[in-house]
Specification:
alpha+beta, 3-stranded antiparallel β-sheet, 1 helix, 6 strands, disordered N terminus, Secreted protein
């Protein structure tokens, strides 16, 4: 019985990590997905929030998960807030930068500007 319980817990943990690290599939414009920070932000997405989760490992409570937002397909003129931790896609311009506590991707990074307001122009 103990072996079955251990196997079940291990499989559930592996499934949770896979769900967080799998690339977003068929996301609609504007959809937000959570992924482990070790996963590169896909083309057409921007980081919008950083946090911590046991599902992505780590023991020092450093940010290890991020929420990413699909920008591809959003109409011209759309304005979004994004973390400065990943490049924004072509067709978008930065209209301002600022500090956001939800965009702290690295511990002890100070209070420097770490977020952008982006606008779709083409």
């Amino acid at each position: 019985m103990t072996r079955l319980r251990t196997t079940t817990i291990a499989l559930a943990g592996a499934a949770a990590v896979f769900a967080l690290t799998a690339a977003p599939a068929q996301a609609a414009p504007g959809d937000v997905t959570t992924t482990c920070a070790s996963t590169a932000t896909p083309a057409g997405y921007v980081d919008v929030n950083w946090g911590y989760s046991n599902a992505c490992g780590g023991q020092n409570f450093s940010p290890n998960i991020k929420q990413i937002k699909q920008l591809t397909g959003l109409p011209i003129g759309t304005v979004v807030q994004a973390c400065g931790s990943a490049y924004y896609p072509a067709g978008w311009v930065q209209t301002s930068s600022y500090y956001s506590p939800s965009c702290v991707a690295f511990p002890n990074s100070g209070f420097n500007n770490n977020a952008w307001t982006l606008k779709r122009v083409s």
